[in-house]
UniProtKB/TrEMBL annotation:
PANTHER family with a match to the protein in the record: HYDROLASE, PUTATIVE (AFU_ORTHOLOGUE AFUA_2G14860)-RELATED (PTHR43798:SF33), MONOACYLGLYCEROL LIPASE (PTHR43798)
Species whose genome carries this gene: Rhodoferax lithotrophicus
AB hydrolase-1 domain residues: 34-257
Pfam families: Abhydrolase_6
Transmembrane segments: none
Entry superkingdom: Bacteria
Official protein name in the record: 2-succinyl-6-hydroxy-2,4-cyclohexadiene-1-carboxylate synthase
Length: 271
């Protein structure tokens, strides 16, 4: 069962930030650990029951958290803008600091990472930077470069935030919805960000990798996961029909079946 939501403080670039997190089935002490990384507008709560369902299917532990700026974690200051390297900072600085703060030594007991969208890109960057500190990775709707489709959809999201009830709906999941939305939206629509790419960096990935994309994803094309497979040839791909940008919502059963089999295959017959 999941524990109650808890908080831990970490030092990020010289300032303390509070990170909301929740353990799933921590009593399964000898089993693999899956750490879940949410999308650009996501949070711990927005995963709903997917982490619990996947951990139960695998028979393992889970850890879900909200990045700074999201959920109940420390909001982004009103005058703080994410930089072009914001996902690198999350992968190289925040995630390692968070793991240390909750008592995880990723070298001694390498976790699995499962990331969605921006969280998937952060997962890829962590996997490339810390190959000795990761058992494997699953990425849902990852970004390795900026596509016109992504920018067009993010522009539509800006209009929706300003003109519809999107802000009110996000307020259910974020203490400061403006922190979450504008941090994400402003950097993705910042003209220099069009040149953002992690295509070369991910070639360093050595861990088992499953890359998943919905065929109806409004934020990215199949080039994202095909590009990963070209650069990381051992990648396994899952293309889901009748599926948009959130495979864990649109095709949860099929995703859980494939992901649990992938993890079990890598860890052996027993968790």
């Amino acid at each position: 069962m999941s524990q109650a939501v808890a908080f831990v403080e970490v030092d990020w670039a010289g300032r303390m930030v509070r990170i909301e997190h929740q353990w799933i089935a921590p009593e399964r002490k000898s089993t693999p650990l899956i750490v879940f990384l949410h999308e650009g507008l996501g949070s711990l709560a927005m995963w709903r029951d997917f982490p619990q369902r996947l951990c139960d299917a695998v028979g393992c532990r889970g850890l879900v958290y909200s990045r700074p700026g999201y959920g109940r974690s420390t909001p982004r200051a009103a005058d703080e803008a994410w930089g072009l390297d914001f996902m690198h900072q999350q992968a190289h600085e925040v995630l390692p600091a968070f793991l240390r703060a909750v008592g995880i030594d990723p070298v001694a007991q390498p976790p699995w990472l499962l990331g969605h969208s921006d969280g998937a890109s952060i997962t890829l960057l962590y996997a490339a930077q810390f190959p000795q500190a990761l058992a494997g990775a699953i990425v849902l709707a990852p970004h390795i470069l900026v596509e016109n489709l992504s920018v067009t959809s993010i522009e539509k999201a800006r209009t929706a935030y300003l003109e519809t009830d999107l802000r009110q709906r996000l307020a259910k999941y974020h203490d400061d919805p403006d922190s979450a939305f504008w941090g994400w939206n402003n950097i993705w629509l910042h003209p220099p960000f069009r040149a953002w790419s992690i295509e070369a960096e991910i070639e360093a990935i050595r861990c088992p990798l499953l890359a998943v994309q919905g065929l109806d994803d409004e934020y990215g094309t199949l080039e994202q996961i095909h590009g990963i497979a070209r650069r990381v040839p051992h990648t396994e791909l899952l293309e889901l029909s009748d599926c948009g940008h959130s495979p864990h919502r649109d095709q949860a059963d099929r995703l859980i079946a494939t992901a649990s089999a992938f993890i079990t295959q890598q860890t052996g017959d027993k968790p």
